[in-house]
Amino acid sequence: MARNARYDRQIALDKAMNLFWERGYAGASMKQIEQALDMRPGSIYATFGSKDGLFSEALAAYARRSGLELREHLAGNSSVLDGLQEHLRCIARQASPGGESPSRACMVVKTLLEASNTNTAIANQANSILSAIEQALTELLEQAKLQGELAPGTHCARLARLLQAQIIGLRSFAQREISSEQVAELAEDMAAMLDHYRARH
Amino acid sequence: MARNARYDRQIALDKAMNLFWERGYAGASMKQIEQALDMRPGSIYATFGSKDGLFSEALAAYARRSGLELREHLAGNSSVLDGLQEHLRCIARQASPGGESPSRACMVVKTLLEASNTNTAIANQANSILSAIEQALTELLEQAKLQGELAPGTHCARLARLLQAQIIGLRSFAQREISSEQVAELAEDMAAMLDHYRARH
DNA sequence: ACTGTTTTTGAGCGTTCACTCAAGTTATCA
DNA sequence: TGATAACTTGAGTGAACGCTCAAAAACAGT
Questions:
Q1: pLDDT value, residue B1
Q2: Burial call A166-184: b when 16+ CB within 10 Å, e when fewer
């Protein structure tokens, strides 16, 4: 009865995510978005409603992608702590200069810092994502404690927050003009810090 | 022979700094700046040249202020490491919800993340400031090593970068909707991490 | 008080912003 | 193949952007 859309919603969303990740919410104009998605304004607004709506979906897509990445790193290691340390090193590799990422820093953190006092809805979304990540890390660490990897007295929620702050610090630090070697060293020092929470044998 | 300026340059700069710190570069419009400084556009442009120029001076003022704060915390402690730990705790106190700061996050980091792919000049300035802080921390730690506070084998430049990443992580994390108690715990955990680098007696 | 210089003022400049919608185009199904 | 419904198009909307400048106002020195 009717015509099909010329664009794949997921592909368009991915392109939008990359642009927003690189330039931020205010830094990406609709003109640039039109060019990146190869879509005219009418199509964009018919599909995503508004710039806010598009950004919101792009941020959600980014969070989904990041979650998958963490789970992959964990799946590669039988030990939770080893997996988390591998995750830190992998972040350092991705966040090194010359990488193909739109930005070395985390899009959620960029969003949180940009939107906190200017766009409540978007800031709330960033908050929710970080809260969910904290929760996931806490559960992961609880599991590690049960398996005897972590010292029995470990306060897992607290360690999860420390770990999240480490990751935020690592990725934001990597946004500086700095050598990939120094970023790798930083990740290594953070991984070493995790060792102090291991159970003693 | 002529009229004096009605405005104190430093006071105006301070107000601009607070607005930019709160809302970011793009998030603070000239209209809002006019209102915050109680100055009309002509006066602002005569004094600071452009929005970029004003922001640049405001960022420099912020960096100066932050440097003074660190030196104060250090002066209060005879030990360098104690001073740095006190500094972490003080950051946590300032970055707690309900504080009077325009933003819990660091203005330099906010600027770095916002400007990195949109405004080269401003991003370079943020980079320089962070580089100078790293340098200052390195020298501070070298001094601590000479005084026997740090383990003799400590790689001070590397520890300085780790410390900077901690501070960036702490302050960015604090931008989340989170209790002041949890921010304080996070600072405490970071301070504890510094203890691992102390010389053993 | 007058003069000379500087500062302040604010209407308004051109541009860019996010966004709209009537008209045109195209795939689908009878 | 023609009718129909959905999608695409892009010129154009009003508002907000950073910024300018001629005129008015205010002080310092004579």
A1: 66
A2: bbbbbbbbbbbebeeebbe
